[in-house]
Amino acid sequence: MQGKPRPAATPEQALSAMDHLIATHLVGQHEIAQQVGLSVTDLTCFAYVIEAGENLPTAGDLAARVHVTTGAVTGILNRLERAGYITRRPDPTDRRRIRVAAQPDAVARVREVYEPYYARLTELFANYSSDEIAVLNDWFTRASALAADYLEEHCRTD
């Protein structure tokens, strides 16, 4: 598929569009978190557990990803466990550490909320050529790494 003609845009316009997307996303995350009975930070942490799949993360892994202290992640995991979202499992190679696994029914509940949104995004991607999607993927990947580096440099929790 060929991409459709796009209106010209400046970097400033693209940054403004990105800011609008992020703001809308933040509001949406708050609303979705409320729907599933979690805080945004707890939902984000749970999303990282889901993303990890069979490579179960440790509490330390999650603390680093969410940019909270290990003490704070303990509170997050306690809430997620009480709410039935995760289970803790001993690390098979180091009994001092625990691994975090998502509960399948909780994954299904969260996916039920997100799937209609992701379906709409998939429809939106259908308006772009594979080359354009490659550029979008590259940009999102690189912008995410840049954001993570910036947070690491300027928003340390240690």
Automatic annotation (TrEMBL):
SUPFAM superfamilies: Winged helix' DNA-binding domain. Residues 1-145 form the HTH marR-type domain. It comes from the Bacteria. InterPro entries: HTH_MarR-typ (IPR000835), MarR/SlyA-like (IPR039422), WH-like_DNA-bd_sf (IPR036388), WH_DNA-bd_sf (IPR036390). SMART domains: HTH_MARR. PANTHER family: TRANSCRIPTIONAL REGULATOR, MARR FAMILY, TRANSCRIPTIONAL REGULATORY PROTEIN. This is HTH marR-type domain-containing protein. It comes from Streptomyces coeruleofuscus.
